[in-house]
Amino acid sequence: MAKELGQCPRVDDHDEIYFCDRCWRDYIQEAINNRGLGCLSLRCPEYRLCQAAVVRELVDMVDVAASYKVNYDWYALRSFVDDSGGRIRWCPGCSIHGVEFVGGGGAGDSLDVLCRCNHSFCWN
């Protein structure tokens, strides 16, 4: 993946595409800063030749700044909660905690939920 600066991108004899760490870092940080949740679906910057996904391991490998990693993690959590099909919801009291309903939803189950922020709400 990493190589000398000033040669980005480079395609080797096996058609593998390489970018330096700095180019990867700038690309990922720009996406986190400007694309919101879209940063989770990043692809190789050389999209015409490569459709490889940018995964969390790459974000860590190229030393993305800590403040960007915090935002990336927040977007990943938001995506997880929002894509849970209603199994996990945001606490309406604080909007920062995802709450999972673990009851079976049967007649005897209480639908009252207590978030760790101490806000109580009905799951319905």
TrEMBL record:
GO MF terms held by the record: transferase activity; zinc ion binding
Domain RING-type, residue spans: 1-124
Organism: Digitaria exilis
Top-rank taxon, per record: Eukaryota
Protein's recorded name: RING-type domain-containing protein
Pfam families from the UniProt entry: IBR
Signal sequence segment: none
Keywords for this protein: Metal-binding, Repeat, Transferase, Ubl conjugation pathway, Zinc, Zinc-finger
